[in-house]
Amino acid sequence: MNKESLQTKKDLEKSQQSEIDRLNEEIDHLKIELNAYKQMTKTINDSEKEFERLFHNISDAVYYTKVYRDGMPGNFIKVNNIAYSRLGYTHEEMLKMSPLDIDFHEKEELLQIIQNIYLNETLTFETVHVCKNGQHIPVEIKTHTLDVEGEKYVLSVCRDISVRKKAEQMLVQAEKMNVVGQLAAGIAHEIRNPLTSLKGFVQLFRSGTIPNETFLHVMEDELERIDLISSEFLSLAKPANSDFCDVNLNDILKDVVALLDTEAFKQSITIITKMGNEVTIVPGVNNQLKQVFINLIKNAIEVMPNGGTITLKLETKNDTVFVSIQDEGCGMTVEQLNRLGEPFFTTKETGTGIGLMVTYTIIENHNGKVDVKSILHEGTTFTVQLPKTVAIPKD
Ligand SMILES: Nc1ncnc2c1ncn2[C@@H]1O[C@H](COP(=O)(O)OP(=O)(O)O)[C@@H](O)[C@H]1O
Ligand SMILES: [Mg+2]
Question: For ligand 2, a single-atom ion, which residues have Cβ within 5 Å?
């Protein structure tokens, strides 16, 4: 081998060695990358497992669905354990279903709701879900609409509110019983007076006194009074008739005052009524409007433990009727005023906080509104506005 070719061989060996070194280096590098990748996969797997664990163990049902451009929901893509077990389905069965199969609403109504969900990033609403065995579950749903590569998906978190609904119903019932119970004492007292006077007349007749016209008139009046009071009591217990008709507001207010006067009197409260001679007719449901004024006057009585005056005023301006109930009670702070009408808001030890909620709902259904003005330690005025029945002119 000549000197030149020896040199070439050495060069070749050198370049081969450097190539080997480079490859070794690359292998080391790949090993590090592979380890990092393994670590990352493990982290992803771990967090996926963690996610699955959380997803299936939260107490709310979670549904993930696609919503197509035509507004139709697809089958569920992912649901958690509670979502299918609560409704009595298996996981496989659930994935073959869509929101249309579990909601109580008619298809058209539900598509309307889904359209609304589609247009909003998040939405909270109440509905009823139907189980496999036909049982109904009232639920509150919060939806999140997600945009994934131009397609819309909806994640719904769905809470079972059966217990809350039942509690609400029980409280409404309790409020009714409470009002009825408290009134019962007053009513019994009220009925006793005319009864005592009737008994007196019966004794007179027995002792041989011949009844004359005046006696009979007084007796008739007393019987009418008993009739009025007992029919008031009955109308409270009757379910509200939701048919609107023209009702005489003067009569309603007179009846309510007659009903609550004894209660007020026991607390040294005088109810002053200012309503003029004009008869005021409004479209409404008699019993419901009575309930409104009973609630408001009862509240006024309850804030005046040391007696005073409640002023009940009926006025008409243009086509609107205003009924105001002014008390001399404790008044309210701004915070309390802001919370009025909120279900279950009460500052009373044995209160339920349903009276005003019912009142506001009824007045809203009558296309009216309720205004409140209150000064702390001085008193409160509730004013109910109602549209007046427009008299049709006779031709
Ligand atoms: N005339 C009033 N004066 C002062 N506070 C009132 C009056 N009416 C209502 N409130 C306040 O509103 C709350 C809610 O009233 P309501 O819904 O009738 O429930 P409840 O009478 O059972 O407390 C009361 O607890 C009280 O704090
Ligand atoms: Mg009340």
Answer: 299, 355
